[in-house]
Design goal:
Layout (H helix, E strand, L loop, with lengths): L6 H13 L27 H19 L3 H14 L5 H12 L3 H14 L4 H14 L2 H13 L6 H14 L3 H14 L3 H13 L3 H14 L4 H13 L3 H14 L4 H14 L2
Length: 273
């Protein structure tokens, strides 16, 4: 993941420069910082230093567009030194490290931002997502909870989904279920429906699990895992017709792999009935 910046990262930062605004929201792959909740200290940088900082930041974006990562970070660090109370600059540095897979450096920067501004939602969300990627479930849950405690979360259903995944891996299935239901109240999503089905299944709410898996499969017909889980639950109910239909979908969608192998075995068993 090191080396050349991902194209979508460069394009996002280009768009930010064109907009002339540090408060734009990015896509799911890399959030752009929102400084609306930042705590502004009494002693702010001078107007001249703020202007120089913006110029340095624009230079950083230009370096990013040329895939000159070291120079980009250097320029944005210069911007942060000129305007040290503007959390947008270190947030971008952390986001660049994150996009390049340098998670330790990203974590360090995001934690420094929270030392500057303990109410910075962006830093909480970015840390939560980083810990989620590392499988540090307790830390992920904590920081995502802190994000959601503060108003103005963009795309909150995404954060509810991340928080639910953290709870799920902590075996806090009831809490995971609640978070996924909150996410679905905001926006329907096949992946979240599937995740909710898993929570229902582990809580032995098999009818609700089947309903969720079926919905996921209808919303995304190529979603082989949803078909497979649906088939298993139909098999449990001895509804062999529906089980066959979903197992056949798995085999059609996945020519090889554990799911398709198991589906073929189950289809043979059903045929022998």
């Amino acid at each position: 993941m090191f080396g050349m910046l991902k194209e979508n990262t460069v394009n996002q930062l280009k768009l930010l420069a064109l907009a002339g605004c540090l408060g734009l929201w990015g896509c799911a792959s890399m959030d752009t910082p929102n400084t609306s909740s930042a705590q502004i200290p009494k002693e702010e940088a001078s107007f001249e230093d703020k202007s120089k900082a913006r110029d340095k930041f624009k230079d950083g974006l230009q370096f990013l567009s040329l895939n000159m990562l070291k120079e980009a970070i250097g320029s944005i660090q210069d911007a942060a030194r000129l305007d040290p109370h503007n959390s947008a600059y270190p947030l971008y540095i952390g986001a660049i490290h994150y996009s390049e897979g340098n998670l330790d450096a990203a974590e360090s920067v995001f934690l420094e931002v929270l030392e500057m501004d303990s109410d910075n939602k962006d830093a909480y969300r970015k840390l939560g997502r980083l810990y989620l990627e590392q499988g540090r479930w307790s830390q992920a849950a904590h920081y995502l909870e802190e994000d959601l405690k503060r108003p103005g979360t963009p795309m909150p259903h995404t954060v509810y989904n991340w928080l639910a995944l953290s709870y799920y891996n902590l075996k806090r299935f009831d809490e995971a279920e609640r978070q996924w239901l909150l996410a679905l109240d905001i926006a329907e999503n096949a992946d979240i429906r599937y995740n909710l089905g898993l929570a229902f299944k582990f809580n032995e709410k098999f009818d609700k699990a089947l309903e969720s898996f079926e919905l996921a499969a209808r919303m995304k017909p190529e979603f082989a895992p949803a078909h497979f889980e649906s088939a298993l639950l139909y098999l449990k109910k001895q509804n062999f017709t529906q089980a066959r239909r979903h197992f056949e979908s798995v085999v059609r969608l996945e020519a090889t792999g554990e799911r398709s192998d198991m589906s073929r075995e189950y289809l043979n068993l059903i045929s022998s009935q």
